[in-house]
Every structure is written in C-alpha cells, then in structure tokens.
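DATA SHEET
Item: assembly model
Revision: 1
Owner: S.N.
Input lines:
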Amino acid sequence: MVTIKDVAKRANVAPSTVSRVISNSDAISQKTADKVRRIMEEMGYIPNVSARRLVTKQSNTIGLLLKSSSKEMRQNPFFTDVLMSISRVCKDNGYSTVISTSKEEAELLHEVKEMVTSNAVDGFIVLYSKEENTVLDYLRKLDCPYVIIGKKLNQSTDIFIDNDNVEAAFKLTQYLIDLGHEKIAFIAENKTYAVNIDRLTGYREACADAGLETTVFEGAAGTEDVKHIVQNMPEEITAIITSDSMMNLSVLSELYLLGRRIPEDIQTATFNDSYLNEAACPPQTVVDIFPERLGQEAASRLIKYLHHRDMLKVSKMIPTRIIERQSTKRLKERET
Amino acid sequence: MVTIKDVAKRANVAPSTVSRVISNSDAISQKTADKVRRIMEEMGYIPNVSARRLVTKQSNTIGLLLKSSSKEMRQNPFFTDVLMSISRVCKDNGYSTVISTSKEEAELLHEVKEMVTSNAVDGFIVLYSKEENTVLDYLRKLDCPYVIIGKKLNQSTDIFIDNDNVEAAFKLTQYLIDLGHEKIAFIAENKTYAVNIDRLTGYREACADAGLETTVFEGAAGTEDVKHIVQNMPEEITAIITSDSMMNLSVLSELYLLGRRIPEDIQTATFNDSYLNEAACPPQTVVDIFPERLGQEAASRLIKYLHHRDMLKVSKMIPTRIIERQSTKRLKERET
C-alpha cells in the first residue's frame, strides 16, 4: 500500500508537506500542492480519513441543530431538503454529520456542550433563528464556528443564510389582492421564531398598502388548533395564507371534511414548495424558498470558514418566487 | 484537564486499560470497566473523540445508503423517520453519519468504494433490498459490516430489518374486503424493489382467498403515470390501494381534481403512516410500518456488530398495524 512517505519521496518534499496538502493547509504553495496531488493520484494514494483527522486535529464532523425534533418538524420537507443538501456538501468535502435530537432548549444546550467538549464536531449549522438563544451564546463565547439558517438578528456579526421572509409574504399577499381578494386570513405558527414574525409582517404590510383589514390567527400549535380555526373561519374570508406548508395540510384536510371546495369556495396559499404542495388537494400556490440552496450555502460557507478562520463573515439572502397552482384563481365579484 | 493517565492512576490500572474501556473492548472485565467508568465520571473525564478514533482505529462514522436520492424519495416521510431514528441511535453511541447522494447504482458503487478505501466509515446501513445488488456484492467480498433495512433475500446470511410486507398487504386488502369491497385496484411502484413485489403479493393472495378478481397497475413511475391511471380507473372499482403513501398523495390529488369524493365515491388506503396521511384529504386508512423502529433496530444492531464481530447475525421483523381513518368505511350495497 502506498504511504505518505512514498508520495513525499517521489515528489521530493518532506512527508509533513504531503500531510499539509492533504489537510488543505494554507502554508503550502499552490504549485507544490498541485504537484503533490498529481503524484498522489499517479501512485493511487488515498488519504486515510482517520489519519487525516489526526493530522488536522479535526473531527471532520459538523453538528446540525434543529429547533425541535418533534415528529411534525422532522417530517417537514423543508428540513429534509435542507438536511440532505447540507449532507451532500459535507460528504463531498470529507465531512460527516451529527444531528441534534433534543426537544427542549436546555437539553439541546447540554447536548451541544458535550459535542464541543469531546471534540466531536468542528462546527455547527443552526437551523433556526430567535432572539433568546442560549446555545448561540455558548458557541459565541467559545468562538466555536457556526452558521445560522434563519434571520439575521440585531447587531449580530454571525453568518446568516436566509430568505427575505417579509418580502416573500408581501409578494404572496399582493398576488392574492391582485386576484381580487379583499378579505384574506393569515394563520401563523409559534411567534418565538423570526420566520413566522417576518411572514406575518409581510402580510400586514401588503394589506395596509392596499387599505385592507387583516384577519390573523396566531400561535396555532397543532392539528386541533388549526381544525378549530378553520371551523370558525368568518364567512367573508375568501383566501387563507398559512405560515408553513405542514400547517397548510391541516387546513386543506379540515376544509375537505367540511365539504368546502378549493378554489371555488375558498382559496389557499402557503410557503415552501415540496411534493406535498404539488400533490395536494388541489395543488397549492406557494412561495418557493429554495431549501436546497439554503442548505448548500450554509454548509459550504461553514466549511470554507473552518479552513480560513480569518474569512470575512458574509451573510447571504436566497431569493424566493411564487409558484401558481390550482388553489388560487381570479376572484369573481361575489355580488353578481 | 483530566487525562487518561490521571484516570488510570486513580483507578490503579494501566492507561491502556482505560483506553480499552473507552473503546468498549471485550478484553476488559465488566467489574474493571464499571470501576474505570465510575472514576472517569467522578473526575469529569471526557474522552476526546479524535483520540478515541485513533485508539480504536475507527472512523466512528456510519454510511447510510439510499436507493435513490431523487427529490420525491427524499421527501418521503418514511426515509426521514428512518434516517432521524438511525441518526439518534448513532449520536447516542458516539457515531456520526454520512448519507449517500448518488442517483444511479454505478455511481453509488463508486461512492461506496471511496468511503471504504479511505476508511471514512466503519459500516453501512443499506435502506433498500433487491436481487441484483452490486453494492452489497462489493461489501460482502470485503467483509465490510452492514445491515439492510428491507427484505431478506434467498440464502443470505446478512442482517435484515424489515416488516412482513406480504402479511401487511394481505391484512389491508382483507380489511377492505370485510368492509364489503369486491373490486379493489392496486397501484404499485417500480417492481425492482422487494417491498413493492411483496405488497402486491399480499394483495393478490387476499383477493384469491376471497375469490375476487385483481386489478393491478404496475410500474407507475411518477405523478403523470398516476394521474393517467386514476383518470382511466374502471367504473366498478370501489377502493384503491397504493404501494406507497407518496404515490397515494398523487391519487388523492387527481381524485380531488376529478371531483370524486372519498369515501363517498371511492375509497383509498396505503402503507406507512405519517403526518401526510393524518392530514390528508381526507385522513387516510394506512398500514403503520413503524419506520422509527426499523431505523433504531438497524442502527443498534450494526453498532453492536461493529463491537462484537463474532455476534450471531439475527434478522428482525417489525410488526405492522392498520390505522383506520375517514378514507374507508363500510360499503353500502350499490344496488339498493
């Protein structure tokens, strides 16, 4: 079997130089690195992952922190798309992943401390953003690298990867207003998370711009809440926006059981495109937030930062777009 | 900071003994292991993951192989549930994971070879089962540890974690027959995978037992195929079973667009429970196959096997159960 020493001899460099090439060290000139890599390939040398980990003193593992490991959250295609996309970028760069499984913030903090202290991960991707965040406070204090998928908060100098959710909700509401809707309801999840607050803000701003009243149902926590809201939806409402497509499924299910047809009797629209919306009853108009690009940007920026700790921390906004489907259509005047 | 040497001194054993305790070696008596662990805890010693990896010459990483990384597959809650459950067991045992991202078998084989040669993983969990499997042939030849979530094939001595899908489909078909259905259609995915073949077999057996004719639509590959099948469904069909709940979503969506009500006009049932079925239009009768238990059994058996390579390879069947929801009900005689 070909060893680092064999490669070093052929390339006429020190074995430590070969190690540095393997660990992508900045201390090696591009020319030398290219030469060593060419010889490694010619000789069929494959770096041993464990050995590389030893050389670099890194775990080559990235921790992924979810806001909750509840079943509904995990089955949300948004997270699957983001996680798979992160996983792919990590694998392509020689990193593996560990996913947090805690349900409560205190438990998650404990889990993170353990990962950090045991040197199990090199950095984290945090899949949520909120004001009071003990986990981020801890990571920041230790200068442990992380990237956040979610909203940039106040004076933070962290790296944030996000959509402009205010704008996304504004566009979607405006789109419904343009179809002729004047009474649009918004059903929103938990207020703690920035994404829900922003989508609600965008909805309010679009309604205000058009001189329309708002009808908001906040803090719907589960299927039962949503059923109750839909059952008691005021008669004059002609369209419902939900802050998340999993919640939208519950809205559709309840409307189905009540015998109210979409888009004939009432119209619906939501955020985050996936197979669920494409194959819904009926297919849903939705704001595509490109979860795969969110995951890809987050992972590649974190990995780059792990190799270049002096890198400028630049946040990134991923654009959104509306996909029109059968759940919305031009509203005919009701009084004709 | 507390080191292995400190622990060894206090426990009055050699440092190598402490290392062996950390790596769960069989060579250490239970009594000694317990003592060393107690002292490690008292002294607040946390094993360094990179160091442990060096001691054990293991990557402490498990590779997860999906049958396809197509978007529909990834958004299938079955895989999310299985992956999250595997991920949890791995994390609890100090393992991280890498997920395959290849779409084609040849590409996957190449990916697996690279992971094995670079020592990036200690073993694999294979999330599909089929007759011709070049990846398994390769792993078997190298004696690389793996566990399969899927059907036990012919003479294989591998570890399989599965449901009895013939029985599950038999039960579901029998349940519909008991409700009074005499014309039940079955829409099946790709025939290459054992799970689809088995579910179809169970359906055929239940129909044969009841002296009923079968109506099978095989090899439906995507949304367009399913739409076409539903649009051309023979008039006399009173119930549709689909081999997978993602495909079932497309069936529901098309029935909705055609204005056919469930369960009044036609009834539906499928496999694998998730939020998608609970919040469907209407909520779906389904066979729960307990994906979390499949993932948990697979991961814990693989990890056990990694530590005890002489372990008897025992496969495990996870039981299934029918969950009744609004998509099915007792069929009234049509001719009354």
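QC remark: Chain A touches chain B through 57 residues (CB under 8 Å).
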